[in-house]
Amino acid sequence: MQKLRVSIAVFVCLLVFWPARPAVAAPSARYFPETGHWVTGKFLAFFEANGGLDIFGYPRTEMMVSDGREVQYFQRARFESWPENRPPYDVQLMLIGDAVMGPADPPIPARQIPSPSDASRTYFPQTGHTISGAFRDFFNRHGGLMIFGYPTSEPYRDASGFLIQRFQRARMEYHPELPAAYQVSLGLLGDEYIFEMQKVSPAATRPVPGDTPPVPADTARGQVVFQTSPGGELIVASLDGSSARVVGHGMDPAWSPDGSRIAYAWWGSNPGIYVMNADGSGAHQVYSGQFTRAPVWSPDGSQIAFYRRYDGFNWKLDGSSKEDFFQVVVLRLKDGSTWLPAGQPYHSYSPSWSPDGRTLVFTGDLGLYLASEDHAATLIPNTSFLFTTPAWSPDGSQILFTYRNHDHWDIGVIQPDGNGFRFLTNGSVLAAAAVNSAAAAWSPDGQRIIFTSDRSGSWNLYIMNRDGTNVVPLGTQALTYTGSSDRTVSWKKGVS
Predict the structure, then answer these.
(1) Which of 4, 28, 39, 177 is the most exposed place for a label (fewest CB within 10 A)?
(2) Tell me, what CATH number does 438's domain have?
């Protein structure tokens, strides 16, 4: 990255004027607990009208004054107030790409300028560069010049091998390993710019002191069961963290459909799948076997699906090592018999039932799979091995999943037919340390999602709306998340 050309005097001016936090989050204000900042007024209107989190990321400061102008920093941008202009031009974006990455590359040679009839590239004589392919499609879909400015380079590969292109206000990065909607992402130029500010004053990005929005009142009536760690305590508690009590030990707890029992896995003596009453009494084994995990009840309560480990073939010629495989198993509680979904890959785990109880979704070698007792497993399009712990929504329209997003875990949704992929969390909150969100489960009415995240510095439970908005922490104790197989929490039916 070329040297940032910003004077210390500007930094100091930026930090002098800090307005008070809004006393009430009115409709024209939105609080972001991920970074501890508010976005209000015309900045919020501009944010929501032009792509929101996907384009700008989270706010990194409050609104402040720089050289007599109101500004606010986001992960990927700086908003500036220009009240002398008529809307929508009263909010503009700083040329942060130029500030972070330096001036434009030399224009392309005249012989390389595309002809007007060349529909594959767009040429900008203002900077002498072109855009094409996925970068041009993204540019045109998400606001064009107003959001990104002119291109200041041709596409090129950086030291990590990714294809990137610089713009006056952005850096586009191409990630072909992601689904199509996310293959073009934007660099965290706001964070890179602010990193220089922090050298002068770490207070530049401090959260605003004060109360965070409370847990919605109606969630205080809910009840969850969660694990403190795999094999650790199983705790039943209200959603506000009150009335917490230990009901047993194990992993991957799941409420029965009527909320009267809890299924869980146990790897201690007499390992297998167990069921107990909601108060912890009456615990008994329903399936015996080592290395079983992730039990989940069928909607009518007659079956429990889970997965188990089994030994595979020798992968060393001398027979010294074997590869472990995993398979999804369904237990009929009435008679203790089992059945296996046909056609499942060697590594199949973390099942979840469709609302009608006819189909299972689970993670496999190549992505998420659908299977039933009558139909062999089929791969859901647009998924990959990076998808795990799927959870079918109560209305059947979406499947939640945890996703390994480069160096962190994020939560997303996809439709059962493979359409509608999108992330609900964005773990790249900090340039130096990504935030994880994982192990998501639905509320019984399907309007909210409960999940675990380390955004506060340790793993805890959070609730958000089904569209990913309004993230609020719960009053639970610190948890331990160990990876893609954990089913940390289950939300009790009958109270939402």
Answers:
(1) 177
(2) 2.120.10.30
Q: How far apart are CA 375 and CA 75, in angstroms?
A: 46
Place of tokens 């996925």: 134
Residues 328-364 pLDDT 10s: 999 999 999 999 999 999 899 999 999 999 999 999 9
- Count of the separate structural domains present in the chain: 2
Could you write out the DSSP letters of every residue in 287-321? EE-SSEEEEEE-TTSSEEEEEEEEEEEE-STTS--
Owning domain of residue 197: 8-205
Side chain identity at residue 67, one-letter code: D
Token readout for 192 is 């890179």
Last residue of a domain, one of 205, 230, 254: 205
126 in a structural domain: yes
Please give the full DSSP string across 38-77, using - where no structure is assigned. EEEHHHHHHHHHTTHHHHH-SB-S--EEETTEEEEEBSS-
Residue pair 302/293 in contact (Cβ under 8 Å)? The answer is no
**What is the Rg, in whole angstroms, of the alpha carbon atoms belonging to the chain?**
26
For residues 436 and 452, what is the distance between their CA atoms, to the nearest angstrom?
Answer: 8
> Is pLDDT of 496 > 70?
no
How far apart are alpha carbons 325 and 309 in whole angstroms?
6
Six-digit token string for 295: 């039990």
Question: 489 with 225: CB under 8 angstroms?
Answer: yes
Is 119 within 8 Å of 134 (Cβ atoms)?
no
CA distance 175 to 153: 18
Is 154 exposed, middle or buried (CB count within 10 Å of its CB: 0-12, 13-18, 19+)? Answer: middle
Find, among 232, 230, 244, the residue nearest to 475 by Cα: 244
